[in-house]
Amino acid sequence: MKQWMTEKLGRQLMAIFYSVFALGVMTSVVSYLYVDNAAGQTKEQVLDQLQQTQWFWFLNLLIFLLCLLFIVRPLVHRLTMQLHELNIKSQRLAEGKSISLEHDIPIENEVGQLTRSFYQMAGSISSQHTELSRKNQLMEQNQETLKEKQNELERALEVTRSNELHLQDRNELIETLASKESLFDYSSVISTIVRLTKTEFGALLLIKNNEISSVVPKEMTEEQQESLKTESLLLKRVMISKEMANSSKKVANDTLIGFPYYIYEGVIPIMDPAKDELIACLYLARFDQAFNKKELKELESFSKQIAISLMRMSLYEQMEYERKETAQLLNSVREAILYIKHDEKTILGNKALFDIFESLQIEEDNDSMTFLEVRPETMFEQVDQKEAFEAYFEEVLSGQIPEGMFSLSIDQGEYFIQVYAEEITQGEQGKGTILVFRDVTAETEIDRMKSELVSTVSHELRTPLSSIYGFTELMLKRELDPERNKRYLQTIHDESKRLTDLVSDFLNVQRMESGKQSYDKEVFDLIDVLKEQTRFYQAATEQHRLQLDVDENHEFLINADKNSMKQLIGNLLNNAIKYSPDGGDVVVSLTHHHNQIEFSVRDFGLGIPSSAMPHLFSKFYRVDNSDSRKIGGTGLGLSICKEIVRAHDGNIDVESILGEGTIFTVLLPSVSDTLIEMD
Questions:
Q1: Helix extents (H) in 515-579
Q2: Which residue in 91, 209, 236, 320 is a FRET match for 271, CA 20 to 30 A apart?
Q3: Where do the coiled-coil regions begin and end (predicted)?
């Protein structure tokens, strides 16, 4: 029975079911057979049989109840107890509590298998729980380790951030000290230091020869600055000891705040490391707390940076002074200088170079104390010998030093320049090349004038002298009739007068240029002189027709030397006639022009080429063309005209078209009626 009780629950239930079913079938068959055999029996017999059948059914029911009582009930009770136990342990297991994994009764039915599976699962869960607990402990240990490392990293991060802020502050100060503005203005430096150190105000005191030369303040009044310079014992102590110091002082009578407070001050000396002398002091002050050792150490570090910056400023000022001194020296030299720095590939020039080469532009922000950068290609455009000078310049740029002088002219011969090159060396290494441009325009002009003088004098003197010599020789060697003799004497007289006029022109030019020419000025009407000179020169020519265009109802009064005016008008009329070899009209005009009198002489002759216009009033200058070369002259007439006009505060100008004619215009100051009455 015990064995049967431990069998499978399904088999047990099926056995009970089949047994009860078989018992019921047997009871029903027996009852049926028993009742069926009651045919022909009496009622009492039938009732007796029915009663017996009832007993069978009752016995069957009793057996069924006994089966339920002794078989099904213990089975159900055991099953219920096992399920109850499993339920309790599953609840404890679900709640995460520990359970006992031991069970005494080995059961082979489904509940037993379920129990074993449950205990196996519970054991697995328990082992996993144990493993998880162990791992959890390890994780907790690791978590604590990680938390310690996190705290350590946070501390390191905080230190890093602090160092980063410190480096940012240091870099900001270094950038401020390294900026170009700090060389000229230290207000940005002291402002940065005051902000970085979280102080209320401060100052940078520059010291020279142990005396405070200047104060660069930040948030300090004039009174505070003066008090700091004259009354601060802390500053005086630092200047004497040359050691950093800090202190605090109580301010009890501040009218602005109204109650006493403390000021915490710090003074840091700034030393020149090369000379070990005091060059500045850094003064800082605040209200909230005193300076600690770390801050003072940081300020000491700042002072070294400021010292380097001050030394840089001193070197810059010295270099700037030497540069300006050198530039001033070179700019004072009359010769134009071009300095080529081969290493820096820059080309600089002094002021004289820019005066010669007008195409070189001077920037507005440049002063006369500096060398200016030069664009060589701009210079080349002004040089008449452009290709030759470019080749010479390229040779210099390549590092070679050409021998001898290079001669060139500028602006169609307006300037004549001689160039030579010198190498600039430092030690044994070449640093650059200097090109010196000597303006030899005056020397060239003198040489030209000498040549023209010799040529002119030899030509102008030889012609009259030859005539005088020839006619006197004829008169001496031949017997001439009176008429021819008179004609020869007249020719000798005219040629002698021509020589006299030539010598007079030379002497006049010399006196005018030396300032020794005297003028006997008087007030007269210019129209009278013009009429006189026009009639004189009209009588001397038959090919030309001289016209006087003037309003004779007006007076043209000037205060001038009359003989000089005759010479001026005569030279202009003579030129108009000479340079109109084919004859024609010569128009002389006289008009009032504002407060000046203007007269002009116009011809319709050869005209003047444009290239000759700038040199027209130069001494001994004559227009060089095939037509004018045949016409004689000394080249002094227009030069004398210019000097006469200049001496009378006037102006002379010329306009000409080659082949169409020329007009000379003279402006002279007029004399008013009021001035005449005063005279």
A1: 526-539, 562-578
A2: 320
A3: 129-163
* DSSP string across 581-647: TT-EEEEEEEEEETTEEEEEEEE-SS---GGGGGGTTSTT----STTGGGS---S-HHHHHHHHHHH
Measured CA to CA in angstroms, residue 559 lies from 31, 145, 444, 597, 599 at distances of 187, 116, 38, 11, 15
Neighbours of 634 (CB within 10 A): 21
User: Using CA atoms, how far apart are residues 139 and 141, in angstroms rounded to an integer?
Assistant: 5
Classify residue 555 as left (phi > 0), alpha (psi -120 to 50) or beta. beta
- Reported as a pLDDT band with limits 50, 70 and 90, residue 423 is confident
Phi, psi (rounded to 5 degrees) for 399: 100, -5
pTM: 0.40
Q: Are the C-beta atoms of residues 570 and 546 closer than 8 Å to each other?
A: no
Residue 533 · residue 573 · CB < 8 Å: yes
Q: Strand, coil or helix: what is 670?
A: coil
Instruction: For residue range 464-500, list pLDDT tens digits in order.
Output: 777 787 878 878 888 778 888 888 888 888 778 767 7
- Residue 485 CB neighbour total at 10 angstroms: 15
Token pair, residue 54, equals 């009832």
Tokens standing for 489?
């004497």
Helices and strands: H and E segment counts in the chain: 18, 18
Tell the residue number behind the tokens 């001397």, with chain if given. 540
Burial letters 44-69, b for 16+ CB under 10 A, else e = eeeeebeeebeebeeebeeebeeeee
Report the alpha-carbon distance of residue 294 to residue 246 in Å, rounded.
13
